[in-house]
Amino acid sequence: MNKHQTDNASAAAFPVDAIRAMFPALQRAGDFIFLDNAAGAQIPQSVLDAVTNHLVSHNVQRGGRYGRSVTVDQSVADARESVALLINAYSPAEICFGMNATSFIRLVSLGIGQMLARDTEGERDEIVITDMDHDANIATWLALEPAGAKFKWWRMREDGNLHVDDLRPLVSERTRLVACTVTAHSIGSIVNVASVAKIAHAAGAEVFLDCVHYGPHGLIDVQAWDCDYLVCSGYKNFSPHMGFLWGRFETLKRLPTFREDFIPDEPPYKVEAGTFIYENVSGMDAAVQYLELIGRNLAPSNNRSRRENIVAGMGAIRDYELVLAREMLAVLKGCGATIYGVADEARIHERVPTFCFNIGKLSPQRIVEEMAEMQIGIRDGHMYAPRLMKRLNLSMDSGAIRASLVHYNTVEEIHRFGEALRAIVAKLS
């Protein structure tokens, strides 16, 4: 079976129509096409119901002795268990809920900054960062320079990805941490993070992973990846806006954090400063159950665990999204686009269906505005990645265009996007 036949079989096997029917926003959108999912995905009805149920049935503070408050405690505990299963955590106690991934990156960086300040001999004062990451996973670490941190840059190659061979000479007995993305939010490149952990741990260093953009596209497995910290957000993962931090229990336990005196000095409590958005945590719980449902429906079995259903669901999503990625790659090339990141179909497994591109010298802003007129939502700009823009020789003012797909998108939508792009290029050229 050739690639075309395989793609057709994968697309036919994936129940995209049934999945789209679960998303109210898609049903109400009319002709509009959601191709800005990297800025936030839509949510299924079950997630909306979970949020509404919280707000209507038990919108109270946890920690009380009355029924509604006890229910909030239980809903948070249930969400911890679900998210722990989603990422294959060692324990639900390692899951910490909060506002967003950026705030958690800052929380961990402040704790590491305190440890750096205490290390008067500066034995482990180096942090490795990349030029492919969202600036939240760069500037946050650079802010530790006053605490004595020194930095080494792991730079993207011309082929649009980070290579572990380039990481090895950067890591030494002085390395405290390697901070990198699992998947570039801007260009869609997937990093071999399991190999990153092997290199870092061999030198006694830790690994911090930004998993925000990978979350909706593939299976997260902190045990297989052997990382030390990981942050993710709900808003790309079919949930409302919220974030979570995972860390090894003992790692989080020794991380200096701000906490009020009455808060236990252990995870997750020491990390969760203040009241977070309980209803959105309930939504995240429902989002995990939605991903389980995909796996359960594709291959019904009474014997599979929740984690096994997640594995099956995310595997099916990944296979289907590879079909979308190949199709979008062909469409963009057919329109004469300069594609940033992995543009070789033979390396399609190194990316998710997030495409950053430009068309000659045409204005990205103008193209995106024309697309909006044609009821297609895409994005232009610097993608919150100034160092990557510089690396790609792109202006911060104009940047590039990004079209980003998830598993509720269709091949037909890609074809309509391609027709619109060809018409816009003809109009503006």
What does this 3D model show about the protein?
- Strands 2-8-7-6-5-3-4 form a 7-stranded mixed sheet, with helices on both faces.
- With 429 residues, it is an alpha/beta fold.
- It has helices at 3-13, 16-20, 24-28, 45-57, 67-87, 101-118, 139-142, 164-167, 193-202, 222-225, 249-254, 278-298, 306-334, 364-373, 386-391, 411-428, and strands at residues 33-34, 95-98, 126-130, 150-154, 175-181, 206-210, 229-233, 243-247, 338-340, 354-358, 376-377, 379-381, 400-404.
- The chain is globular and about 65 Å long.
- The chain starts with a helix and ends with a helix.
- The longest helix is centred in the C-terminal third of the chain and has 29 residues, at 306-334.
- The mean pLDDT is 95.
- The protein folds into 2 domains: 16-45 and 309-428, Aspartate Aminotransferase, domain 1; 49-287, Aspartate Aminotransferase, domain 2, CATH 3.40.640.10.
- It has 16 helices and 13 strands.
- Strand 3, helix 7 and strand 4 form a beta-alpha-beta unit.
- Helix 5 crosses helix 12 (278-298) and helix 13 (306-334) packs parallel to helix 16 (411-428).
- Pfam families: Aminotran_5.
- It is an enzyme of class 2 (transferase).
- This is Cysteine desulfurase family protein.
- GO terms for molecular function: cysteine desulfurase activity.
- Residues 33-417 form the Aminotransferase class V domain.
